[in-house]
Structures are given as structure tokens and as C-alpha cells.
Write a structure and sequence with these properties.
- The complex is a heterodimer of chains A (505) and B (308).
- With 505 residues, chain A is mostly helical.
- Chain A has a single domain, classed as ABC transporter involved in vitamin B12 uptake, BtuC (Orthogonal Bundle).
- In chain A, the strands form two sheets. In chain A, strands 1-2 form a two-stranded antiparallel sheet. In chain A, strands 3-4 form a two-stranded antiparallel sheet.
- The longest helix of chain A is centred in the first third of the chain and has 65 residues.
- The radius of gyration of chain A is 26 Å and the shape is globular.
- Chain B is 44% helix and 23% strand.
- In chain B, a hairpin with a 2-residue loop joins strand 10 and strand 11.
- Chain B is globular, with a radius of gyration of 21 Å.
- In chain B, 50% of the residues are buried.
- Classes of the chains: A mainly alpha (505), B alpha/beta (308).
- The interface between A and B is large, with 41 and 48 residues.
Chain lengths: 505, 308
Amino acid sequence: MAPAAAPSRLQQALRDAAFAGLVTAALSFPMLAIRVESDMNNRLVLEERWPLMFAAIAFIASARFLASMLDDWRARAGAVAGVWSMLLGAGLAWFTTGAQAALAPWFLGGGALLLAAALLLFRASPQEAEPASGAAPAAASAGRFVTLAGFVALGVVVAYPLVLLGWLGPQGSLKWINNYGVQILIYVMLGWGLNIVVGLAGLLDLGYVAFYAVGAYAYALLATTFGLSFWICLPLAGILAAFWGILLGFPVLRLRGDYLALVTLAFGEIITIVLTNWVELTNGESGISSIPRVTFFGIPFTAAPDGFAATFGIAFSPIHRTIFLFYLILVLALITNVVTIRLRRLPIGRAWEALREDEIACRSLGVNTTNTKLTAFALGAMFGGLAGAFFAVRQGFINPNSFTFMESATILAIVVLGGMGSQLGVALAAVVMIGGTEILRELDFLKAVFGADFDPSQYRMLIFGFAMVAMMVWKPRGLISTREPSIFLKERRAVAGALVKEGRG
Amino acid sequence: MSRWLTDPILAVEHLSMRFGGLVAVNDVSFCVGRGDITALIGPNGAGKTTVFNCITGFYKPTQGRLAFAREGRADAAEVRALTNTGKRHARLPSGDIYLLERMPDHEIAAKARVARTFQNIRLFGGMTALENLVVAQHNALMRASGWSLLGLIGAPSWRRAEASAIEKARAWLARIGLEERADDPAAALPYGDQRRLEIARAMCSEPALLCLDEPAAGLNPRESAQLGDLLRLIRDEHATSILIIEHDMSVVMKISDHVVVLDYGALISDGTPDFVRNDPHVIAAYLGVSDAAEAEQVVAEISGEARP
């Protein structure tokens, strides 16, 4: 790190980049920007190629800037490749049309992913290898980076459906808002809910989907049997799921580690089996259909005269409901996030983390570990139940097949992949896990490589398995492994992941 | 008359602990004086840590009574009356009495206010030094945060309570010389600092009795001396009595007011440091011979060799 009097790293990097850009400009002006050609009549003409020159400047300056900002060669290589790919995509979108322009989003998206991956995977590695106090400033800047990235991501997510709607129109954007937006956000919320139990309190829960199921069936049954509205059922579903969490927690939380994991796994299975076999209540495998759809605070999303479109004087389109669902799950997920972040800074949240670190020390300090575990379990279950109610209102039809062990495993993988305890990490992992499996359906161009019979969606799980293994080799503690202290005296420094325990139940 | 007999804070009576066929502690009785530093010593495997685990509720004793008079002197008749009721706790005019053998570990820490440290340090390694000391104030802070409800809405009363908790933690960090490292993770601190931090963490829960399990283990002579100063400071400036298991005899003899010696799970000596130092039973136990007469013989032989 530079001494305090020297210019900051950012200033230095900007200066380096500006200098590299100037040199490139000076060199490329005679070589790229202007060119003398002989035309048909053998006359010499001056050809101007300004875009080429500016592209060269942009490529060189960006590479120089990233090289000055990043220490790790892998981070440099990945970030430069990502930024160049994005520049290329922007160039294609700007200057070309047709087939070439269609490639632009791939370059832009791929470049952004590459950049994000390079920054996340390799940026924080030096201070992990050396958790001594000397690495603290690097960790501090990593903490600010995480906060900033969180706000940028929130802005992107809020704008996402509207931008897509404007770009692709109601027909084209439906898939992207529904399959990518809503689907991913459900898992973000589930991941954040489970993160309270697994990431903060360190209790390995393999049956989280049970609470998701309780929430979904609570809404479905209350709405179809008693005709209650979604807005009444939503809190009820949360309360019911929390109640089930406490009911399960009382006998189970005296177990630790592997035993706790096994019992929660069994509980998840029991719930699915009960839902399948209690035909009088749940209608078994056939499930519950015609669940009332979501309304805009009482105004239905229909083409009828009292529907949403007619009320607000716009043309009817099914996309309205999808966009409303998108913002609904976004709000629910954000509530989960804000509550978790606030609780982490309260005694209960610190007790969860202390429990993960050392349960015996907690008891010696007078922390009632049973109650503390129960609150974590109940709160996690409540958010799972809320997500379940949302799932039911979105699908309009539920059956036990939506709540298998695979779901629990996916949610747990999201939490572990994200970095246990890290809110932003969990959100990123949900995007990668769910968005990643969805995007593999879209890779039709692979048919050009592997032949027309090749169906990339068949290989989704295989590719995903490889990705997970690679991830665990390079970042065994998840995408964001540092821990933010809940309070600080002088400065907030992130704690290196190697020092933080995973908890043993 | 010794203070541990006239004004005991804790009376251990006929304490026995069996693990299956193994008798780890056999009918041990001793008292811990209010405001004293009491040392519990003995060779390895003598049952010292087992006694600790019984006092702090990590083990449920097979037999025996642990009467803890937190504020005032407990009358024998009153303790007997409490024992017969089957309750854990009685509020008497002279103060609260707790029967520790009937209470779970976290209640002993929270209600009776007995805090402890561990032989192998048990800090919250991934949390900062400051966080460690704030977690120790958990129960007071839970009440102040209205069981999280006041805290979630950020009520002013909660903010004040949190600020004073941080100030208390800061004062303890300053006292053990770790204020500069308040925001470092506990696991990154040097060993000696971790030992002192664990004691400060126990003190942040405002204990009436502080139980320290080998606090000087692994410390160099300078750190041991610092530890002795810290313990004397705790005894003199806080209303906290100290019960300490220690192998380092220089520390024990220098700081303790009262020494209790265990060997093979039984009490073999109980008195002032000077008394214990010259007790032939203690010498016998530490030399590994079976009785006092043999010990005197061994001692005589050794002194004979020393003075030819």
C-alpha cells in the first residue's frame, strides 16, 4: 500500500491510464486515424478512420487502468478480457446491424460476467493467504467494494424489467422477466432466508424446502378454501411456516452437526410425503389448481373493464402481472435482506454468529443457545414461508413435486457458493446458479459446433457440476468469503474468511 | 479466622462426579471466600477441571451441593431450607442464594453470575475483539433491545444501551492493552493477548465469581506477571471473587489468598499459600509418592544430597 501522502491508488491508476491513452493517441493518429489511399482514378485521397483510433485508445487505456488497479495477474487478465469483450460488444451494437449486431448482447453479457468473476475470484485473495493485521487496509477496501457493488446491483435490478420492456416489447421481454427475473429473485429470497440459519447461526439445514412448501400450501389452501386474499394470506403463511420451524426446532436443535442435518433432511422428506398422501387436504399428486392470482391491491390483472389495464387506461398485456410479480418478490427479498442486516447488528444476530463460532463459549457467557437457535430457525422458516406463498400465487398451481430434496440442495448450494453469511454473495450465487441453468437453454449456437442433434439443455447439470467443482477448488469459501464485523471502534475491516468458522450445528 | 470460612461466596459440599465406573471427583468440600483469589491446584488428572465444570454447570454433579451466596452471607439453615424446597434460587434479606447444581450452564452465567474461561481458549475467532466483548453483554443488551423489537426500529434507548456497551468493551480493551487491536479478529491476536481477551470477555458479563482454567498456560514469564497484575486489579477494583486453576506455582503463591489442593479426585489440603506449601500431603502428591511419611523421607534424602 502507498503511504498516506502519496496519491490514492485510483488517482494513480487514472493517471497511468490517461498517459497510456495519450501515447496511444499520439501513435495511432498517424497510423490508424488517417490513411492515404489511391482511389479508382489513381488519385491519392485521405481516409479518416476515427472510430478505429478511439477504439485503440479505449482498449489500451482500459487495460492500463485495470493493470494499475489490480495486483493479481489472474484478476488483471480476466478483467481486461471482460472489459475488452464489453467494448467489442458496444462497438458491434453501435456500428453494425443484423447478424453481427445480434452478437452484441453476448459479448456485453459475457464480458460483464468475466469482469465480475475476475474481480470476485481473485481480488480478495491476497489478504486471505495472509490474515495478519498488515493486510487490513486491503480488506477494508474490499468491504467498501462489496457495499458499493450491492447498491449498483440493486439499481440494475430495479431498472431491469422496464429496460427490457422498452427494448424487447411485451412479447419478447416476458421470458426474460419471468424466467430470469422472478425465478432468480425467488431463489435470492430463499437463499437469504436460509443464510440466517446456515450462514449466520451455523446450523446445517437440509430440509429448508419444507418451510417453502408450508408457505405455498398455506396460501393455496387458505385462498381456495376460505377465499382469503393474498395480502392476508401472505403474513399468515409466514407465521405458519415460522410455527413449523419452532415445532421442528424444539426436539431437533439439541442435536449437532451431521445429526441435525440428517433430521432436517428427514423433515423435508416427511413434509413432501404428507403432502402427497394426505389426499383429502392437499389433493395429493394432482395438487391444488386454480389458486387465485395476484391482484394489484384488489384490481385484477385481466382484460375486463375493472381490470388493471382498463383502470389505468393502458392496453391489456399479460406482462403487467409479470412485472408486478417481479417487483413484489423484489420487495419481499429486500425485506428479508434488510431485516437480516439489521438483526446482524443487534444482540440476537451477534449471538447467532457467536453460536456459529463457539457454542460452549456462548453458554459460558449466559447466552440461551436453545432460544437463540430457535429464533434463527423460526426466522429462516418464516422467510421461506413468505417465498412459498409468493410461489403459489405466481404459479397458480402447486403440487408436491415442486418441493423435492433437489430444491433444498439448490438453495443450500446457493448459500454455500455465495459465501456463508454474505448477503451479496448469496444474491450473486443465486444469479449464477439459477440464471446459469436457465441460460444453458439458450445456447443454441452450440448446435453449430457440436451438430444439430446437440441439445445444450441436456448437459445443463453436467456443465453445472463442473462449474461447482471449479468454484470450490478456487474459492472454497464461496464468492464473498470475508465477514463484515457488526460493530467497530475505529474502522470497519472485513475479517478474512479463513478465520471465520462454518459452525457445526 | 479466614475469610473463606466466615464469608464464603461459594460453598462446595460433598461434591462427587462419576463417569460410569470412574470417580473423577470424590466427596470434595471447600469454600471460596468473597473477594479472595482462591487457587485450585493439583497434579494432572486430579479432577480440577471437573470441579470447574460442575460449578459452571457444564456437568451435572453426581452428588453434592454448590451453594452460591451472591451478595451476602448465607445462613446454613436458610440453605438447608432452600435445598428442601427443590427450587434453584431463593431471595433472602441478606441477598440471593443459588444452588448451582440444579441450574443449566447458561443460567449459572446469566443469573447467578458465575463466568469462566477455558483451558483451551474459546474466543469467537472470526469476530473482532470488540465483538467478543459485546457478545459477553448479551443478556443485558437483549433486554435493552426489547428482544430485538426496539433494536429493529432503532429506538433511542437501544442506541444509548449499545453505545454504553461499546464504551464498556473499549474500557476493558484499554485495560488489557488491546485498544489498538479492537477491530482485529480475535483469532489473529497473539496467544497471550487471546488469554487476556478471554478474561476481559468473562469480566464484561459482570460476574460475581470468575473461574479461570489455567490462565497462565503457555505464557512467558513477562506475560505471566501481567496476568497476575490483571487478576489483582480485578479483585481490588471489582466486586468479583476469583477461583483459579493453575499449574504455575510462582503465579499461584504470589497472587492467591487461599489454596485448595486436589489429588486423585479427593481434597488433600486447604489453607493459606504458606500452609499448603509446607503441607507434607501436598509435597507427597507432587512428588508422586503414596503417603506423607514416605514424602518426608524423600524430602530428607533430597536435602541430604543437597547438603553433603
